[in-house]
From TrEMBL:
This is Short-chain dehydrogenase/reductase 3. Keywords: Lipid metabolism, Membrane, NADP, Oxidoreductase, Signal, Transmembrane, Transmembrane helix. Its EC number is 1.1.1.300. Belongs to the short-chain dehydrogenases/reductases (SDR) family. It comes from Gouania willdenowi. The gene is LOC114463353. The lineage of its organism: Eukaryota, Metazoa, Chordata, Craniata, Vertebrata. It catalyses: all-trans-retinol + NADP(+) = all-trans-retinal + NADPH + H(+).
Length: 314
């Protein structure tokens, strides 16, 4: 405890990542691109993974302008084999990755019973399962040198929850990060660091519409993407184990554990945390409503709620 208190007041020493090989997943997305550019500014060579080839290539071009070596790979993180194959390619092309930023993430953004099974499954595969396969693919090389850094971009919603498919996957990511950290410590692999990043809403569009009670929005506004990544970078370079962005998010994390369930529910209701996803879901529904589906096309079979409604209609 004393150590933690002292560290809070000391200016942390930031490590140098010049010449390290850093792999970032979801590098075509908002935060992934910013992570890539921040690591490039620090002199790290980059391996960029995303399922969106164009967006990933765009990030690669921007990073190359900063003078580092960059390779972009199109990978579907929801498929274990795709991860293992791409990892083999990376090893053959550029060698050992020493910093892994597991940043890619998805959200279905539907009410549970309206959500196609495939979308729910994808949330868990990309946000949680992929962390296992990425670790199995890249940790062995780090272990050989007892040198590396595993970064997990989870979420504040991995520490406390609201009604959303995404929370379970991010709780899984937090649990995975913690157990990996314990495993490394138990094996005395102190040269391999881990950092857990838990941001609140970031203004990237991923959660467009998600909002808390109007009167409190000024107190906890959505985060700027660049600020979020810069704070996360500081934590990574300081080899900090965990960061909540903003720091205010440590409070619901702690109260979730300390207060009775009903007290948490009352607080969430008061702050608008209980229904924060509803306008976001409405946004998605509006976007999808233009997409007309035939009553019994194959994808509707995996949506029990919808399927039952359609049976009733017929
Ligand atoms: N935005 C927010 O409010 C917050 C985000 N986070 C987390 O931060 C991380 C980055 O979020 P953000 O930058 O906002 O999101 P973006 O949607 O902008 O970026 C995510 C990237 O991951 C890619 N991706 C999605 N699925 C796969 C897949 N199966 N295989 C490979 N790549 C995939 C996306 O491609 P495509 O665009 O084609 O789907 C996209 O390029 C995520 O883990 C998210 O959960 C945490 C807290 C808050
Ligand atoms: C639930 C809840 C809150 C709202 C949290 C929200 C709205 C989080 C959104 C996070 C996102 C979108 C993360 C993405 O990864 C408050 C008001 C802090 C109070 C405590 C309970």
């Amino acid at each position: 405890i004393l150590n933690a208190v002292i560290q809070t007041f000391l200016r942390p020493r930031l490590k140098c990542v010049d010449g390290e090989l850093c792999l970032i997943t979801g590098a075509g997305g908002a935060l992934g691109r910013l992570f890539a550019l921040e690591f490039a500014k620090e002199g790290a060579d980059l391996v960029l993974w995303d399922c969106n080839s164009d967006a990933n290539e765009h990030t690669a071009r921007l990073a190359r302008e900063l003078g580092v070596q960059v390779r972009a790979y199109t990978v579907d993180l929801s498929k274990r084999e795709s991860i293992y194959e791409a990892a083999e390619e990376v090893r053959a092309d550029v060698g050992c990755v020493s910093i892994l930023v597991n940043n890619a993430g998805v959200v279905a953004g539907r009410r549970l019973l309206d959500c196609p099974d495939e979308l729910l499954e994808r949330t868990l595969l990309v946000n949680c399962h992929a962390l296992f396969w990425m670790t199995k693919a890249f940790l062995p090389q780090m272990k050989v040198k007892n040198h590396g850094h595993m970064v997990t971009v989870a979420s504040a919603l991995g520490l406390f929850s609201t009604a959303c498919d995404y929370c379970a996957s991010k709780f899984g990511a937090v649990g995975f990060h913690e157990s990996l950290t314990h495993e490394l410590l138990a094996e005395n692999l102190s040269g391999i660091k881990t950092t857990l990043v838990c941001p609140y809403i970031v203004d990237t569009g991923m959660f467009a519409g998600c909002e808390i009670r109007k009167e409190l929005r000024g107190l906890i506004p959505p985060l700027e993407p660049l600020y979020t990544v810069q704070q996360a970078m500081k934590a990574i370079l300081a080899e900090q184990r965990m960061i909540c962005i903003p720091r205010l998010m440590y409070i619901p994390f702690l109260t979730r554990a300390l207060l009775p369930w009903e007290a948490n529910v009352a607080t969430y209701r008061f702050m608008g945390g209980d229904k924060c996803m509803l306008p976001f879901i409405k946004n998605i529904e509006m976007k999808n409503s233009s997409h007309v589906q035939s009553p019994l096309d194959s994808s509707s079979l995996s949506q029990p709620g919808l399927f039952m409604d359609k049976c009733k209609d017929q």
